[in-house]
Amino acid sequence: MTADTSLVTDTAALVVDTSAVTAVLFDEPGSGWLINTLVEASRCYMSTGTYLELGIVLESRFGPTGTGTADRFVRDSEITLVDVTPEIALRSLEGWRRFGKGRHPAALNYGDCFTYGLAAERDLPILCTGEDFAQTDMFVLRPGHATSGSDDASLAE
Q: Sorted alphabetically, which keywords does the UniProt record give (predicted)?
């Protein structure tokens, strides 16, 4: 996998979503940019709720070894796991109320809500893929785009 540094932003700290990890592990388009963004960030965080979702996704894809894959990726990427505090849980619930599946086009699922809650509590951008978080009020880092709220400011075509 060759890393493309042309779109990496100067990111002090960020919150990592399951979608970013699976994109890297499955070598999806933009995975090089995601790797560089993880490397360049001074600190990377993931909610333990998101970590649970990641384990479920990887175990359903790879069987029992999927959880080990999640563990290795988080360790090797130096992602700090953050416990779901009452404050993060409240922010997660707020995210679901405003942007949850069946309520809003962003359609945040259960795991997404933990990413949203941690990012909202710490006022940090979310590293992800796809359109879901880009339709919320959070600052989003994703391959080819950096968006704030519903703004769709493209960094590259």
A: Hydrolase, Magnesium, Metal-binding, Nuclease, Toxin, Toxin-antitoxin system
Q: What residue ranges do the domains of the chain occupy?
A: 13-148
Nearest CA to 85 out of 59, 55, 49, 51 is that of 49
Average pLDDT rounded to a whole number, residues 84-90: 97
SS (H, E, C) 37-95: HHHHCCEEEEEHHHHHHHHHHHHHHHHHHHHHHHHHHHHHCCEEEECCCHHHHHHHHHH
4 annotated among ligand-binding-site residues: no
Percent of all residues in the chain with a pLDDT value above 90, rounded to a whole number: 71
- Confirm whether residue 137 is marked as ligand binding: no
**8 A C-beta contact, residue 156 and residue 7:** yes
Mean pLDDT of 41-54: 97
Q: What are the distances in angstroms from CA 104 to CA 49, 80, 100, 135?
A: 21, 30, 6, 9
| CATH fit for domain 13-148, picks 1.20.1300.10, 1.10.520.20, 3.40.50.1010, 2.130.10.120 | 3.40.50.1010
- Per DSSP, the three-state class of 13 is strand
